[in-house]
Amino acid sequence: MEKTNLYRVDEFGVKNYNYGILGLLSFAVFSVLNLSLGYIAYLAEITVETSPVQNYADALWLMMMSSTTIGFGDVYPVTLIGRAAVFVMFILGVGILGGVGAIFANKIFGFADTNIKNRELRKQNEDIFQQNAEIYKKLAELEKKLESIK
Q1: 142 and 92 both lie in a single domain
Q2: Distance CA 31, CA 58 (A)
Q3: pLDDT, tens digit, 9 for 90 and up, residues 19-39
Q4: Same domain, yes or no, for 90 and 121?
Q5: pTM for the complete prediction?
Q6: Segment 89-104, tens digit of pLDDT
Q7: Domain count, the chain
Q8: Cross-strand partners of 17
Q9: Which domain holds residue 26?
Q10: Residue range 64-88: mean pLDDT, rounded
Q11: Which residues form the Potassium channel domain (predicted)?
Q12: Angle between helices 19-45 and 80-109 (to 10 degrees)
């Protein structure tokens, strides 16, 4: 087991990640990004009278909508700093939410189970080949003994 408990290495030498910890870590990073970039957008947008961002809740809503790619259009940035914050949230938010979605899909549908089964089958095949080689040696010895009896 690795010190941070993010993963463990199985008998096949493959890293198996602790999805609970990774999910919580992703949620924490996602939350901090929403709060901090929302605050940056709020500070940039509050000084402009024509901006739809009127309070911090609007800025958080803007960040949530941009990170999920919904973007209703009711709240949007008008300043360069606000647009830059939305751009960063869009790129990072989509990445984080996509990664979490992939983790859940993997757990629900079990795509990784196929890889595990393939590794187990390869290991079984190696064992079978080794047994066959031993049987072949014994058969060769028996053939020699039979030849010497004749």
Answers
A1: no
A2: 16
A3: 788 888 899 999 999 999 999
A4: no
A5: 0.67
A6: 999 999 999 988 888 8
A7: 2
A8: 7
A9: 7-109
A10: 92
A11: 37-108
A12: 160
